[in-house]
Amino acid sequence: MLNIMEVHETNQMIEQEKLDVRTITMGISLLDCATDDLDALCERIYGKIYNHAKDLVATGKQIEREFGIPIVNKRISITPISLVAASACKKPEDFVQIAHTLDDVAHRVGVNFLGGFSALVSKSMTPAERMLIESLPQALAETERVCASVNVGSTKTGIDMNAVALMGRIVRQVSEATADTDSSGNSKLVIFCNAPDDNPFMAGAFHGVTEGDAVINVGVSGPGVVSKALDSARGKDFEFLCETIKRTAFKITRVGQLVAQEASRRLNVPFGIIDLSLAPTPAVGDSVGEILEKIGLEQVGGPGTTAALAMLNDQVKKGGIMASSYVGGLSGAFIPVSEDKNMIDAAQSGCLTIEKLEAMTCVCSVGLDMIAIPGETTPATISGIIADEAAIGMINQKTTAVRVIPVIGKGVGEMAEFGGLLGRAPIMPVNQHSCEEFVARGGRIPAPIHSFKN
Amino acid sequence: MNQAIPSHKAVITVVGKDTVGIIARVCTYLSEHKVNVLDISQTIIEGFFNMMMIVDIEGSTQEFDEITDDLDTLGQEIGVRIRCQREEIFTRMHRI
């Protein structure tokens, strides 16, 4: 039978250390909505999402109350719209109309984000995919809850440099279209390499074509719990440190698994995966940067940061993997600068640079995430940043992503304010040397030699 | 094996400053609503009174979330924090 100390420990994690289930994301396939009539398509999309997800938020809240664990976000991911709308959309504005439909249904069912306004162009773009990408500045500026992603490369296909060049220009245009809110449109746009089909975390979530009709994926979090546990590991060796992280990750993931199974049962939708990521929030004590500092760094970004992060990421996976029947998504540590208090501090003090963050992305779960850069950064430079990150993903057979925000009208040292979970970010300096010629070449970077495993 | 279906057991925790009659008030509520108490333990953690009850709500006249809300209100009256949670959140975390 349970003892009082165990019960106390769990409640302490929830109340003091901000243990939560970060998101329940319902993936919904829209492939069966496809038609060549735009209005009919919008109607079908709205109907299908509404019918599947109408009880999602209420069910999430019920689980939250009965188990006493906060479920911060309830979200939806959908089939990449470029596939669903390929025959109905004749111009970028048609995609904007779909974005509005998605935003409307997201409001109606009460989810705070809906992901999947996406295009998978890792080898090349179809006309529809290009139009979707071109619609992004208007679509992201005019909608509130729609999240977009573009996959520009993979280990198996190489990198589509035409898409990379286009995305550099688009990111800049999205910034300009949302200049009045510190270019926050780019907080809803992720550029991937090796995007996973079953990622429940926004802004990069979409419902892959390999998935079933609907699925429940759950993202667990808990940097605060890991950080607290590390207090007991001060001065101890790596063996003790790693064991502590693994044990904690196991406990956190078990809670996620429970919530996922409950949500799946109550909504009568199959359970997909748990994504066991440490996802920070701007709240004090809910920081991945703080964990790295407790491992022994004066400030995150200094020498040792990459090694500490690599170790942390690996231990989180090792601890969590046995706690869930299916693990997927990104699973690791997120390092979004604007959403992590200690990262913000380190970026402000100059200890954490974009170059160091790039190194960190080689060993953690995603990539250059929620990084504010000067508004005057050229599209070519943005493309260069995207290409570098995609190359890391392609060569290392891992997911990488770029979510950078050129903040129009602001320069290095100023702060961009995005509000809520998206937080605030100091504008970080970007290397000023040009990569114009590199980006302008066009074509694609071939798949690396180690992708030929057949 | 269907682990997903919750049992009828819940864990009620009371945390706060010790005062006369906490257990009595909680037990009165539970007996009025036909909630069966299976186990009680209490201790002092970091200077605070901590009580834990494991209860069976199968025969209860109330829905789970009504019990949660009622106990929360009762806690506010007494000046302590009372939570009622399904047992699985704890067993899953601490038992393999």
From TrEMBL, chain A:
Protein name: UPF0210 protein BAQU_0704
Superkingdom field: Bacteria
Spans traversing the lipid bilayer: none
Subunit structure: Homodimer.
One Pfam family recorded for the sequence: DUF711
Organism: Bifidobacterium aquikefiri
Coiled coil: none
Family of the protein in this entry: Belongs to the UPF0210 family.
From TrEMBL, chain B:
ACT domain boundaries: 11-85
A Pfam family per the record: ACT_6
SUPFAM superfamilies per UniProt: ACT-like
CDD domains xrefs: ACT_1ZPV
Classification via InterPro entries: ACT-like_dom_sf, ACT_dom, UPF0237/GcvR_regulator, UPF0237_ACT
PANTHER family: UPF0237 PROTEIN MJ1558
NCBIfam families the UniProt entry points to: PRK00194.1 (NF001220)
The family this protein is said to belong to: Belongs to the UPF0237 family.
Protein name: UPF0237 protein BAQU_0705
